[in-house]
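re: ur question from yesterday

yeah so i grabbed the chain u mentioned. its 53 aa long if i counted rite. heres the sequnce exactly as i have it in my notes:
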Amino acid sequence: MCELGFTTKQNKADHGVGMYLVRSIVEQGNGHMELDSDEQETAFTIYFPKELG
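ran it thru and got these structure tokens back, copy pasting raw so excuse formatting
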């Protein structure tokens, strides 16, 4: 789902870049994402380390 080009849209011309970009930003900030999904909905939780000082 977080791979470049992943899309669920029928028009494959709409290239999937949204979650790929989110994942890239989170990883650059030394964070991580968690995914919780069921048949009705999907939720992403994003964590970044707390900067001290």
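noticed a couple things. The mean pLDDT is 80. also The chain has one domain: 1-53.
anyway ttyl
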